[in-house]
Write a structure and sequence with these properties.
11% strand
Length: 241
Amino acid sequence: MTKPLTDYKALTFDCYGTMIDWESGIWDAMQPLILSGGRDDITRSLGLEVYARIESAQELATPDMLYPEVLSHVHQSLAEHFGIEDSAELSRAFAASVPHWPAFPDSADALRLLKKHFKLVILSNVNRDGFAASNRKLGVDFDAIYTAQDVGSYKPDPANFDYLLEHIKSDLDIDPDQILHTAQSLFHDHVPATTAGLARAWIDRQDLAHSDSWGATAVVDKRPEVDFRFTSLREMAQALA
């Protein structure tokens, strides 16, 4: 039986797709490559779909690679996939794009409301410097921040959730049954969080409950059940009332 929201002590968050609009950020960062190749046939939907496949494969192949390097390799693979000549300058700009990815309009206000009720913890697939740049857009101080750089692997690797559970206990004295993992990505977060035995809140910004538009997130064969579903962080914060 699902507990009320207020029974949890900590919200553990994915950031990109949940708080930061990474799809708009990625799509914007792809534009110089698309322009250089004269490819007016590459739509946002197609570009993000190809990105999702390439990024997840790259992270699996190079789990200890820092995220800017991952993005650089992804950019090279995108260029190859679409038959466009890559350049070092374009690749470097794409790799450095994370600080420019925008926050969703509701994120900062919602996080300030949620912080009044919960410890807020980040479990992110970027590096420390990348998240620090995004954090400046989010308006709160998180109680703990764990990144792929800390863990040495990328979600959905179970090691990331093992690291989360070990460190949130030692750092904040929070047990697994006090955690509500809150994320947009079924692939990166909800599937492994289910395996880890965590309660889950789905921030379904893509409205996947009513569509099949996966955007920049890899597709999962079977959608996991969740304890809560909200279409935004604002809706989640309002649910506390």
